[in-house]
Amino acid sequence: MADNSLMLVKGVGAVKVKALINKVWVEITIYQVEYVPGGANLLSENVLLDKGLVVSKSGNNQIIYYRDGQRDIEAERRDGLQIMKFKPIVNRAMACIKPVVWHERLAHINSKFLNDTKDKEAAYGLENMKREDVNFKCEICMKAKSKKKSYVTVEKTVKYLPGECLHSDLGYANAISKNGNSYFLVVKDEASAFRQVYFQKKKGETAMNVIDAINFMRTQTGNNVKMFRSDNGGEYKCQELVSLFSKRGIRFGLNSPQCSPSNGFVEREMRIEQDAAKNVLKFAPRGLQIIGIGYGENFTVSGLSQCLEQDELEELLDDLVCPLQTDE
């Protein structure tokens, strides 16, 4: 040091920086840089002069170094020090110009949002992306948003009040959760589109949960259930439910045999959620092996799986209060 003191140098190497040379930022390499933890970045003018550079100082505190007669690095005088016009080179691990990668990173957003993100410079990596590059086809989106040919629409002659007509379906997950749940039961009100979701360990729990849903709707709306619609699954045609419907005068509207999708009111919603979850999980890490269903714009397992680990996701699904009731 200038005062003959000593400093602990942990290493010596080369450092790449960007230097302002003739109004242009140029990447340069500084060799024989000594690393001193906690120290300031110091560059000696005498060392530069010894290496053959020539310094030019003007009255406006601007300092320019010349190498072989060519303009080189620059600095400015401030508080008695020369402040070099350097800036660090930042490694951007997230930088990527492929729009399809950003499309997946940002939860499969649309092309317009990608363009807006680029135009507003809201994210690194999109600077060189051309607008025509966003016209790609995403396999996940195509499968999740694909539509099957619908059944012929039947005009309804009966208008039900909230709580008078319930639609139900039972779905199966591709894996058993940590607490043993492998089914989810959906009960949806026709008039209000209000849903109730129950998680089940086996199909035999369906009757108990359907009765609970019927009692809940009757208490909350003040209207008795007049129609209950489902497919021909044995979990619905059990003696317990058939006796309940007969006792309370509830019409049991079963779909035609082998035509479960004909009850599009509940089937359509379940299919969309299942297809989206399956296709997202298809490209997810192998450790994420559960499909669950959440209803409402802000609660879907396909969205939760992007920010939760498998154990956290399963625990969240199992710890939900049954039934889970949400308004549309």
Characteristics:
328 residues; alpha+beta; six-stranded mixed sheet; 25% strand; elongated; disordered C terminus; transferase; Transposon Ty2-OR2 Gag-Pol polyprotein
Q: What is the approximate shape? A: elongated
Count of alpha and pi helical runs: 9
CATH architecture of the largest domain: 2-Layer Sandwich
Average pLDDT, rounded to a whole number, is: 76
Count of discrete structural domains: 3
Strands side by side in the biggest sheet: 12-11-8-9-10-13
Oligomer: single chain
CATH class of the largest domain: Alpha Beta
CATH topology of the largest domain: Nucleotidyltransferase, domain 5
Low-confidence stretches: 286-308, 319-328
Strand content: 15-25%
* Main sheet characteristics: 6 strands, mixed
Question: What is the CATH superfamily classification of the largest domain?
Answer: Ribonuclease H-like superfamily/Ribonuclease H
Report the order of strands and helices.
Answer: EEHEEEEEHHHEEEHEHEHHHE
Domain Integrase catalytic: 158-328
Keywords: DNA integration, DNA recombination, DNA-directed DNA polymerase, Endonuclease, Hydrolase, Magnesium, Metal-binding, Nuclease, Nucleotidyltransferase, RNA-directed DNA polymerase, Transferase
GO biological process, one term: DNA integration
GO molecular function, one term: hydrolase activity
